[in-house]
């Protein structure tokens, strides 16, 4: 039988061949496979033409394999078994992929809101296996557009063209200081106060930093950070250890305010508001878990939804 590695033997022809050997007739093979006798005959003839050999002797005794047929039979059986194993592997992977959920989230959302959302979602979809990456908003969008994740969460004012967007939280940035800071004797501070005190900020590309810079620049104030750091937690630790102030989401400081280690002040005449948003790419073919999570966000997290109201 000639070799053609670029176009291997047809599984349909091998299935018909094995069935014919084992049933000793075209009729029996057709019954076993749920095919017509004509369809089985065509498959066997195609296999013989491809191999350039006769695989069956036909006579009053029915049909029995020739020497070539007997040589082919064990390898054909093994080939079909290997195909069934391959199909099982793919089936197992499909099942795993059906429950996989890849997410990239900006720091405020990823550290303070997303864990609770995922816990509630998994109560309804317990087989979901979520893989979460925490990064700033710019990096989240890059992962999303490179199709490395299916759902992203951002908190800046980024260009979201090409994305489906859900607003999942209305947020406000506050002036935050250590509870030992001299400003704690006051209820509010002004823009001039911000310009004269060390500013502890998130890194560029952070949604928190970008929104604060954008709003304050509208009032003619451009702040130069004394310290820049890549996470909300490190900003809070820096405030306690070294003083200064930061502009952070109230969501990110609730525990510290309750514990008395951080304090919040009003910024006179200025409100720094933003929307926290879930995003997904128009162009990406989303898996079952990602589709279910998006629907859950629409129904239970989006402000104004049944549970988000």
The name of the CATH architecture of the largest domain is 3-Layer(aba) Sandwich
Q: What letter string, H or E per element, gives the SSE order?
A: HHHEEHEHHEHEEEHEHEHEHEEH
Shape label: rod-shaped
In the CATH hierarchy, the third-tier topology of the largest domain is known as: D-Maltodextrin-Binding Protein, domain 2
Question: How many separate structural domains?
Answer: 2
Largest sheet: 8 strands, mixed
If you average the pLDDT, what whole number results?
90
Question: How big a fraction of the residues is strand?
Answer: 15-25%
Structural class, by secondary structure, is: alpha/beta
Total strands: 12
Number of helices: 12
Q: What's the CATH class of the largest domain, please?
A: Alpha Beta
Q: How far apart lie the N and C ends?
A: 71 Å
- The gyration radius over C-alpha positions equals 33 Å
Low-confidence stretches: none
Oligomer: single chain
**What is the percent of helical residues?**
40-55%
């Amino acid at each position: 039988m000639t070799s053609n590695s670029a176009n291997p033997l047809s599984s349909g022809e091998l299935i018909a061949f094995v069935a014919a050997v084992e049933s000793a007739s075209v009729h029996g093979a057709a019954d076993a496979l749920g095919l017509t006798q004509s369809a089985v005959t065509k498959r066997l003839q195609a296999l013989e033409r491809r191999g350039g050999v006769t695989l069956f002797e036909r006579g009053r005794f029915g049909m029995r394999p020739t020497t070539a047929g007997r040589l082919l039979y064990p390898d054909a059986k093994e080939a079909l078994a290997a195909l069934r194993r391959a199909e099982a592997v793919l089936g197992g992977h499909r099942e795993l992929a059906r429950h996989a959920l890849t997410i990239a989230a900006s720091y405020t959302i990823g550290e303070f809101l997303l864990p609770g959302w995922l816990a509630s979602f998994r109560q309804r979809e317990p087989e979901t296996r979520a893989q979460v990456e925490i990064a700033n908003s710019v990096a989240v969008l890059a992962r999303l557009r490179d199709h490395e994740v299916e759902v992203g969460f951002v908190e800046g004012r980024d260009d979201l063209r090409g994305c489906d967007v859900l607003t999942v939280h209305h947020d406000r940035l506050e002036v935050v200081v250590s509870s030992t800071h001299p400003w704690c004797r006051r209820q509010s501070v002004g823009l001039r106060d911000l310009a004269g005190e060390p500013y502890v900020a998130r890194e560029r590309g952070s949604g928190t930093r970008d929104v604060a810079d954008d709003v304050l620049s509208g009032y003619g104030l451009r702040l130069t950070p004394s310290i820049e750091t890549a996470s909300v937690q490190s900003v809070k630790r820096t405030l306690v250890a070294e003083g200064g102030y930061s502009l952070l989401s109230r969501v990110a400081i609730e525990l510290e305010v309750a514990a008395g280690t951080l304090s919040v002040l009003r910024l006179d005449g200025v409100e720094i508001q933003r929307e926290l948003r879930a995003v997904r790419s128009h162009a990406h073919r989303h898996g079952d878990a990602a589709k279910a999570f998006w629907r859950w966000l629409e129904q239970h997290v989006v402000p104004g939804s049944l549970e988000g109201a």
